[in-house]
Amino acid sequence: MFCFISFLVADVFLLICVAFYTLLERKVLGYIQLRKGPNKVGIMGLPQPLADALKLFLKEQAKPVLVNQWPYIFAPIMSLILSLGIWSIYPSSSVHVYFPFGVLFFLCLSSLSVYGTLIAGWSSNSKYALLGSLRAVAQTISYEVSMVLVLLSGIFIVGSFNFFDFVTFQKYFWVFFISYSVSLVWVVTTIAETNRAPFDFAEGESELVSGFNVEYSGGGFALIFMAEYASILIMSLISSILFFGGSSVVLFCSDFFLIIKTFIISFFFLWVRGSLPRLRYDLLMDLTWKSYLPFSLGFLFFVMSLMMLLSY
Predict the structure, then answer these.
(1) Would you give the DSSP letter of residue 196?
(2) What one-character-per-residue DSSP string does 85-146 give?
(3) How far is CA 51 from CA 17, 42, 110, in A?
(4) Ramachandran class of 37: left when φ > 0, alpha when ψ lies in -120 to 50, beta otherwise
(5) pLDDT tens sequence across 234-269
(6) Fewest Cβ atoms closer than 10 Å to its Cβ: which of 66, 162, 165, 265?
(7) Catalytic activity, per the record (predicted)?
(8) What ranges do the domains of the chain cover?
């Protein structure tokens, strides 16, 4: 019962973070584009995410005639549940559950998340939605290879599958200082994994209207929207643990420092969206298969060789 309540509280706070992260995105994009962003609802637009959520969930749910009804309804729910499930690996000082294989758990759930997009596109029975979902699947599978190789390098350095051990290992120095090049590969990979600009080909408005979610409205669209932003926050959290997991010298402040680092990385997602145009799709695929894959594989072999030498 206690574990269930802990999971529930953690997920509620994640959804609140998602709500105000959308407000932060609109404010940041507004100032990047030399405008104010939302500022009419309440004080400085602070209640704007709550107003948006209320509007979306009160809108009429579209029911296209040709959709496969149950997969169409299930896909947004599945995407959000998977995003909330990954949040349980958060290595808090007041943690409610212990994950000795947290890295494997993260890889399993993040790999499953692409099925929500695929089911949403297929069940919509729309050529635009199907093309968007196929793009998302190809993109996610391609960049997952590089992501796993970078994670394996971190596992060999730390010697554990547990995110708590990543934090403990980086108590006095960050892994970023010994693997800064591959950490940049990781950041770009996470942007591609979450289908964010400049890699947002699953939602290419110029050629696919709105991509895989073109047939969704109201509550279904809101759930897809929340799942996407929850994934961004979770990827930011994982990035801060893998490469900046230190600052745990003062135990009662460790969670605070982890939150600050997560916020900075999640802000970087918004900065990239406001600064860079969308990449061409063939260049996106060339980037991972011809550049990131050989580089991350070479770094993994280097780390394995170094660890073997140090063990003797």
Answers:
(1) -
(2) HHGGG---TT-SS--TTHHHHHHHHHHHHHHHHHHHHHHTT-HHHHHHHHHHHHHHHHHHHH
(3) 15, 10, 30
(4) left
(5) 999 999 988 887 555 444 456 778 888 899 999 999
(6) 66
(7) a ubiquinone + NADH + 5 H(+)(in) = a ubiquinol + NAD(+) + 4 H(+)(out)
(8) 66-311
Pair 161, 100: CB distance under 8 Å? yes
Judge residue 203's burial from the number of C-beta atoms within 10 Å of its C-beta, 0-12 exposed, 13-18 middle, 19 or more buried. buried
* 263 Cβ contact partners less than 8 Å away, ≥ 6 residues apart: 236
Measured distance CA(211)–CA(132) in Å, rounded:
5
CA dist 238 and 154 (Å) reads 12
pTM of the model: 0.90
- Which amino acid would we find at residue 209? V
Which residue type is seen at 42?
A: G
The first and second tokens of residue 152, run together, are 């394996």
Torsion sign, CA atoms 108, 196, 63, 56: positive
**Tens of pLDDT along 48-98?**
999 988 998 888 887 888 888 899 999 999 999 998 888 878 776 655 566
State the amino acid at position 65 in one-letter form: V
| Element holding 82 (H helix, E strand) | helix 69-86
**What are the tokens at 222?**
């809101």
